[in-house]
Amino acid sequence: MSRRNLPNHDQDTHPENPQSRPTTGSLGKGEPVFIAVGFLRRAHGLHGEMIMDVLTDFPERLPNRKVFLGDARESQQIRSIRPYHNAALVTLDGVDTPEAAARYRNTVVYVRADQLPPLPEGEYYHHELLGLQVVTDAGEVVGILEQILETGANDVYLVRRADGTELLLPVVEEVILAYEVPQGRIVVRLQEWG
């Protein structure tokens, strides 16, 4: 689950594109928003365990928690999770055989955004920032935050300008000045590159 300030704690990475951060549902009122927290690759062993790519910084919060599987958002509960190489082994309630586990092969695991734990003041999940207006410290509208790219050293914001062009902004203190989420904006200082 990702947040701003600044480790990523809402890691909703799609397996085919680790730069993406899928959320689904409406970011407006009414329809729930789902955040990807894992990707079930395949069955492992004889007791229904599955190998899951972990897409959250908080996998320890997943056991005994309601999750939603795949595009159909099938409601399920993770019974257990344990580290396994660069992934995790998980078991789901009622899934006790390799055949039952095979049903969930290549399935994204989601949680509802409204069930995420609160973050400390001044920190935000990625889905809370997407769609915010980006403005300069002089009040000039730059565009809308469309995507957050994880590059390793720091995140990069992809901002869509009114004319349709893209602007990439590194998430560093010199560029990102303030998060004014209640007002629906992020304040930035555009750099002059020589």
From TrEMBL:
Coiled coil: none annotated. Residues 126-192 form the Ribosome maturation factor RimM PRC barrel domain. The keyword NADP does not apply. InterPro entries: PRC_barrel-like_sf, PRC_RimM, RimM, RimM_N, RimM_N_sf, Transl_B-barrel_sf. The keyword Chloroplast does not apply. Keywords: Chaperone, Cytoplasm, Ribosome biogenesis, rRNA processing. One of its GO terms (cellular component) is cytoplasm. Signal peptide: none annotated. Residues 37-114 form the RimM N-terminal domain. Residues 1-29 are annotated as: Disordered. It holds the Pfam family PRC_RimM. Residues 16-26 have a biased composition (Polar residues). One of its GO terms (molecular function) is ribosome binding. One of its GO terms (biological process) is ribosomal small subunit biogenesis. Its main location: cytoplasm. It is found in: Cytoplasm. Binds ribosomal protein uS19. Belongs to the RimM family. The PRC barrel domain binds ribosomal protein uS19. An accessory protein needed during the final step in the assembly of 30S ribosomal subunit, possibly for assembly of the head region. Essential for efficient processing of 16S rRNA. May be needed both before and after RbfA during the maturation of 16S rRNA. It has affinity for free ribosomal 30S subunits but not for 70S ribosomes. This is Ribosome maturation factor RimM. It comes from Anaerolinea thermolimosa.
